[in-house]
Amino acid sequence: MKHSSFFWFVLPSTLLMLAFIAFPIVSVVSQSFYSAHEQVVVQVKNCGPFGCTMETSVDQEATAAIREAEPLGKFAGLDIYTDRNHLAFGEVAAAWVNSDGLPDFGRSLMNLPFYKALGFTLTYTAIVTPLTILLGFFVAIAVNSVAKALKGPTIFFSLLPMIVTPLVGSLILFWMVDARGILGTGLQWLTDDPNLSVKASTGLMWIMLMVYGVWHAAPFAFVVFYAGLQTVNTDTLESAMVDGATRWERIRFVVVPHLLPLVTFVALIQLMDNFRVFEPIVSFQASAHATSLSYAIYNDLGGETRLLSSAAATSVLTIIGIAILLSPVLVRTWRDFDRK
Amino acid sequence: MSSKATRQPPTIRIMATSFLVIWLLVAAFPFLWTLWGSFKVEGDFFSKANWANALFGTLTQAETGGSFTGAGYEGAWVQEEFWRAALNTTIVCVFVVTVSLTCGTLGGYALARSTHRYAFWFLLFALMFRAMPPITLVSGYLLPFFEWNLWGHLYTTVIVLVAINQPFTLWMLHSFFKNIPKDLDESAMVDGCTRFQAFRHVIIPVMWPGVITTGLFSFLLAYNDFAVTTMLLSKENQTMIPKIASFLGTTQTKGNVMFAVSAVVSATAPLFVMVMFFQRQIVSGLTAGAVKG
């Protein structure tokens, strides 16, 4: 393809991506170095019948003028990154000195908003990704063995948890595990504790969020593995059987190696998606027990005062996290291309 | 499939079947339960006394006289004006799908046909953009959008969603176009067509299966989005998903959680229908593309 026709063909997409993905990234990075202007305070002498007092009040006009003139705020350098709400170097150092032993240090880290969010995000990613792959694999093997007529409906129902909007899907689960819902009641009956409430316990909330994560993502893994199973070479399976391989050995040495490239693919997609876990935390109203990096940004942006700079700094840190997570894949894709 | 190697002993067969039944229950039961419960009153849906009330609607009978009530739907659609949100969602989805497919087919076609190195870099950058959580980008939009008075309108959200969808759309369409033989458009060009004419007369007629599959995923991304729509739309322009989220804040205190439940069921219904009709395309899209929405 000629350079010029390539250029015209990709122009619309390129413009869109530059304006709404590349430019916002630049904008986020620059915003994270500025902090909002403080309000302009003026001293006013207030004289009444009982003498004069000095009063301080906010000069709304001057504040608005200054904010109008420099919408980014005043330059703060790396201050926002190091403050208590982000990397919190000071607090971490203090916690390191004051804590006795690593567990104690971990506990004080989890009291800092950024580390709390990072801790949950990483735990969630590390636990949900392998469980999704396992569950998806078993469902694929099970679906593969049912009668052909049943396959359509089975796949239909299996797809639902993934297709349904994350916010909606997690709300549905949340209502069911409510202390007055069917699963909540079931849990209370199982544990014989009438006061058990998922909403009130940090541990249970984490487990619930991860259960939701696996439930939501397993269909994707299932579909990919199921498609992979259709292409397993029956000749190889049969010759393995002739050679005396047991059923387990056939799965272990023929099926699993065949699916292995798919596992890397699913793992990559899941890592990216789980790292941005966000909607279930909103639905479960779990912010007291678990926050993620995405939720921290959302929290800063919402509400009365939009903390743009704080959100920007968290965004930059999240992007760095994703870059680290993705770098092995990018390097591999690049090498693959070079080999071609 | 009738090969001896794939035949299973009965014990394994029973194990696999029972595992599958459990999985299907886990996957489908929450939806059926919520659908059923949305026609009850709150006292039944969240039953303190007995969970079976939600099944038989004891309180619903006492309060309304029938076993089913549409009060939740009426409250959500009429009183809370959920129809407006549904309309907004329709507008957003239609425009997002059309615009992103238009840009995506052009770009995807060029990327599939170009053999130059920069096409590969283009795709690599798209992959990196695909990994960006939308909410990190949103924090970059807010300030400029406020400054330029773009915030709150539907068309801003449409453009933003199209842009966020673009990397995924490009990857997917790129892999679909790769499967269309090169000779097709090249022979048209030998016959004197320009590149665009070849695309217009030869490629467009044969590209629809791939485009439909990609369109489904674009639709899902626009329909399911929460991060962008909740931050960039003003209250009267809200789409369904942020509207449901706002029900949680305001109406739960008033005891109208059933509004949210019926809104949730209403928002899920179109997705059910979509999966029913396009199951094959969704499955092929999930496996064919190197990316997922």
UniProtKB/TrEMBL annotation, chain A:
GO cellular component terms, semicolon-separated: plasma membrane
CDD domains: TM_PBP2
PROSITE patterns in the cross-refs: ABC_TM1 (PS50928)
Annotated ranges, domain ABC transmembrane type-1: 118-326
Domain of life: Bacteria
Assigned keywords, A-Z: Cell membrane, Membrane, Transmembrane, Transmembrane helix, Transport
PANTHER family: ABC TRANSPORTER PERMEASE PROTEIN, INNER MEMBRANE ABC TRANSPORTER PERMEASE PROTEIN YCJO
Designated name of the protein: Carbohydrate ABC transporter membrane protein 1 (CUT1 family)
Organism listed in the record: Litoreibacter halocynthiae
TrEMBL record, chain B:
Keyword Transport attributed: yes
Domain ABC transmembrane type-1 stretches: 86-276
Transmembrane segments annotated in the record for this chain: 12-36, 85-111, 118-142, 154-177, 198-223, 257-278
Family assignment from sequence similarity: Belongs to the binding-protein-dependent transport system permease family.
Coiled-coil region: none
Cellular compartments annotated: Cell membrane
Source species: Litoreibacter halocynthiae
Keywords per UniProt: Cell membrane, Membrane, Transmembrane, Transmembrane helix, Transport
The organism's place on the tree of life at top rank: Bacteria
Main localization (coarse): membrane
One GO process term, biological-process aspect: transmembrane transport
Pfam family, one: BPD_transp_1
SUPFAM superfamilies hit by this protein: MetI-like
This protein's record includes keyword Ion transport: no
Lipid bilayer topology: Multi-pass membrane protein
Protein name: Carbohydrate ABC transporter membrane protein 2 (CUT1 family)
